[in-house]
């Protein structure tokens, strides 16, 4: 059974509240889970201790059993010091898209024409 440590959404519309759960990866996001490991309230300030609460003993147990944390949970565990920081290098993320590159080329061409005309 492929286990995940992930977020299950609760709360009302526009007021998210998440449970941190250990669940079978084949189950739906808000569906059946094995164990509740903690909570995450994104509406609280980032420096609040109540924002992320986790039962670290149980989280460590599930990690030892082979459960894979999702990206967001992995970041929370890194902040808590349970996991070592993973390298996240995405060099393409900062590059502009095709249309933005075309606009930049057009702007550069117009600037070059204006510079030649003023000389």
TrEMBL record:
InterPro entries found in the cross-reference section: Ribosomal_bS16 (IPR000307), Ribosomal_bS16_dom_sf (IPR023803)
Basic and acidic residues bias spans: 81-90, 99-110
GO BP field: translation
Region (Disordered): 80-119
Domain of life: Bacteria
SUPFAM superfamilies named in the record: Ribosomal protein S16 (SSF54565)
Molecular-function annotations in GO: structural constituent of ribosome
A matching Pfam family: Ribosomal_S16
Keywords associated with the record: Ribonucleoprotein, Ribosomal protein
Keyword Chaperone: no
GO cellular component, one term: cytoplasm
Family: Belongs to the bacterial ribosomal protein bS16 family.
Cross-referenced PANTHER family: 30S RIBOSOMAL PROTEIN S16 (PTHR12919), SMALL RIBOSOMAL SUBUNIT PROTEIN BS16M (PTHR12919:SF20)
Name of the molecule in the record: Small ribosomal subunit protein bS16
Highest classification ranks of the organism: Bacteria, Pseudomonadati, Pseudomonadota, Alphaproteobacteria, Rhodobacterales
